[in-house]
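Structure in, sequence out. Go:
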């Protein structure tokens, strides 16, 4: 896994250097694409109770500000990323968010426990890695998200139902049925598969 993490770290650090604190800086097409995914992930959260949330692969921290704009209150936000430049940018961009903290990590297992763990976009970019290698990384990361979350976790992935002629070799397209079944069998009997928001991906919510 460490080899994959290093490869991804180098890629995203380069994206941030090229595009700065923007959706493109974390490899989304635009802000609409980024926010659309946030909307789906946040369906895992309670509306009116205190909670803590860990954002694995937080990038420059955009989810924290988005949650505030959406009216979430009484929560603690912990952002984690492998890229030092991302964490530095997050701390520089959002010092005014007193509910948010950002941490550099070398491996997902270094996260502290939280009520919820979310991950947006971290399973999309496989670069030149082999598919079986990347799937192994995904499943290992999901196991860690399960272990580190007390109440549930959520993640998104590109869907294998994307138009074949538009699929790219550097991206990973997952079978949503396989991922749903895997989560049902290994993590919880309370799993939701969201595949109806008109984007080329899906979101899975695992509630405990």
């Amino acid at each position: 896994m460490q080899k994959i993490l290093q490869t991804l770290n180098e890629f995203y650090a380069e994206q941030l250097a090229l595009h700065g604190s923007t959706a493109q800086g974390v490899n989304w097409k635009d802000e609409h694409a980024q926010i659309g995914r946030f909307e789906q992930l946040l369906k895992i959260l309670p509306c009116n109770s205190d909670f803590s949330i860990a954002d694995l692969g937080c990038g420059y921290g955009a989810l924290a500000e988005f949650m505030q704009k959406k009216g979430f209150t009484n929560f603690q936000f912990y952002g984690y990323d492998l890229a030092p430049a991302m964490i530095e940018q997050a701390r520089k961009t959002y010092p005014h968010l007193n509910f948010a903290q950002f941490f550099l990590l070398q491996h997902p297992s270094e996260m502290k426990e939280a009520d919820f763990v979310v991950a947006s976009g971290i399973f999309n970019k496989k670069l030149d890695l082999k598919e079986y290698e990347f799937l192994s990384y995904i499943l290992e990361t999901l196991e860690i998200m399960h272990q580190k979350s007390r109440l549930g976790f959520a993640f998104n992935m590109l869907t294998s139902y994307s138009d074949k002629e538009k699929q790219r070799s550097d991206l990973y397209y997952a079978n949503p049925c396989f991922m749903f079944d895997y989560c049902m069998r290994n993590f919880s009997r309370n799993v939701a598969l969201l595949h109806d928001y008109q984007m080329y991906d899906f979101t899975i919510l695992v509630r405990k």
